[in-house]
Design brief:
This protein is an alpha/beta fold. The protein has 14 helices and 16 strands. Among the domains are: 175 residues, no CATH class; 120 residues. Helix 3 packs across helix 4. The protein is globular, with a radius of gyration of 24 Å.
């Protein structure tokens, strides 16, 4: 069905160069002669340092890149596969000796040119793939099971092994270290690599990982049905999402001893949405009984109607409407004409674009979907193969993420901790960092930018396990507004009581007081 690490191992690949040529490396243009099974090198071009405009979009902003060898390739592991990928290699001494695979977002079928540019600016030989299709519409999977596999895990693996070979032939040696760096679907891809192909990378950054993909999309359906009438009319005025966030923050902002407009840990927040129940006629500052009932179902998350078993965690307080935009907070999956990503059911599972998601049978379809496409989930708790070869995982997520609820990320981490022998054993190779107030990979009212890759490098290459990662928030003019340490879970950041609460230096990581 798909290639394995053994079937596509580096040592089994034949490349059309002599060992002497490997040692010396070869010019960029001659990489088109490289022979890799099921891979064609479309072009190999030397680019001078300067602006690079991503192809296919003349209006795209130019990216600044150093001098690189840009390799464009396509992999066809099956007759129904067409996986485009690119490998960018900094020229000469600008290459830091490392390889980096970068992730994608959503079901997007496109090369991540921004991530490629960022990677080579940092000195990495960097690879990105469109995962085997074009666009973000799930129609690509209808009648194409191999393309679903390509998106699910095969494309990243093939990109990685082919990318290392391309780097070896250009530079004369394999990368000293290899890292994967992704958020959202990229975080999902990071964990899929750890679980299925543990030899591919020495370390991964898994940001806001959408690892339990099938049940996440089932949760979107649950939440939409809970907040809409049968005719599709919303039962909750979308502006009330911001009301909920503002009310929860007002009630719980100071729980961590700092008034900064951010809920430190929503699990400690005792705010009850029932306090907003309208006492008289409905208004913009209160919830009707219908609205209250609906949002409570979103907080609770989907449960099996027969057994009461939790299918997927609910969304936490503070994720409802953290910004003024129409696409922020819960509006992403509730202020839309139909449930988010129902194409998974129509095109991946039932192979029927006319399948009516309103017919979803909660007693049967949850199990059927997970039997049918459960291979898309990166939820294996046994990570011993990756751990045994010295692999390291830095995972992070935002507490205000409105796309993937933070409790699902914590749930996975705690399940791995139990499976791997407890916190001490797990933290030797896997650490989670929770970001209060951060949204989906970035955004939100809290510090929302962090350099997890440097923390991972230090852990893999110097043995320095990260106790904290400094996150920052900038003003609209680019100036620094606030820094805050993100602590290795379950520790949390607490202010010393001295100095500015906008300076990470005045905080320390301590045991959670919950």
């Amino acid at each position: 069905m798909g290639c394995t690490a053994t079937a596509f191992g580096l040592l089994s690949i034949f490349v059309a160069f002599t060992p002497a040529a490997w040692a010396a490396g070869t010019g960029c243009a001659t990489l088109t002669a490289l022979t890799i099974p099921d891979v064609s090198i479309v072009s190999a071009t030397s680019l001078s340092a300067g602006p690079f405009v991503p192809p296919g979009n003349a209006n795209a902003a130019a990216l600044t890149v150093p001098a690189i060898c840009r390799v464009v390739a396509v992999a066809t592991p099956t007759s129904d596969s067409h996986i485009n990928f690119e490998v960018w290699i900094p020229e000469g001494a600008a290459w830091n000796g490392r390889f980096q695979g970068v992730g994608t977002g959503g079901f997007a079928g496109s090369i991540s040119y921004g991530a490629l540019a960022e990677g080579v600016r940092r000195g990495y030989a960097t690879a990105s793939t469109d995962t085997g299709h074009v666009g973000d519409n799930l129609t690509f999977g209808q009648g194409h099971p191999e393309k679903i596999i390509d998106w699910g895990y095969r494309s990243i693996h093939l990109m990685t092994e082919s990318g290392k070979l391309i780097v070896r032939n250009h530079s004369g040696r394999f990368p000293d270290r290899s890292y994967f760096n992704g958020c959202a679907t990229g975080g999902h891809q990071a964990m899929m690599e750890v679980q299925r192909f543990p030899a591919d990378y020495d370390g991964v950054v898994a940001g806001n990982p959408a690892a339990d993909r099938t049940n996440e999309i089932i949760a979107y359906l649950w939440d939409w049905l809970a907040t809409h009438a049968p005719d599709g009319t919303s039962l909750v005025e979308p502006s009330k999402f911001q009301l909920l966030t503002k009310s929860a923050v007002a009630a719980c902002d100071a729980d961590d001893g700092v008034g900064d407009g951010v809920i430190d840990d929503p699990r400690r927040c005792t705010f009850d949405p029932a306090s907003l129940l309208c006492k008289a006629s409905p208004a913009s500052t209160c919830l009707t009984a219908t609205e209250l009932d609906a949002v409570r179902k979103v907080y609770a998350g989907p449960k099996d109607p027969g057994t009461g078993e939790q299918i997927f965690p609910g969304w936490p307080l503070g994720s409802e409407g953290y910004g003024p935009g129409a696409n922020e907070g819960w509006r992403n999956f509730l202020d839309v004409p139909e449930p988010r990503r129902v194409g998974l059911f129509q095109y991946f599972v039932f192979n029927n674009p006319n399948w009516d998601w309103r017919s979803f049978d909660w007693d049967r379809d949850v199990a059927f979907i997970n039997r049918t496409v459960g291979f898309l989930n990166a939820t294996n708790h046994d990570l011993r193969a990756f751990q045994s070869r010295g692999g390291k995982i830095v995972m992070h997520t935002g507490w205000s993420d409105p796309i993937l609820p933070a409790p699902d990320v914590i749930k996975y981490y705690e399940e791995v901790t139990a499976a791997m022998g407890g916190p001490a054993e797990t933290q030797q190779f896997f650490r989670l960092f929770m970001a209060p107030g951060m949204g989906h990979c970035n955004g939100g009212p809290g510090p929302n930018s962090l350099d997890a890759l440097s923390a991972l490098e230090g852990w893999v290459e110097k043995g320095v396990a990260p106790e904290q990662i400094i996150a920052s928030r900038r003003r609209s003019d680019g100036s620094l507004e606030r820094t805050r340490p993100l602590c290795a879970y379950p520790k949390v950041a607490r202010w010393s009581g001295r100095g500015s609460t906008d300076d990470a230096a005045n905080f320390s990581c301590v045991a959670a007081d919950r």
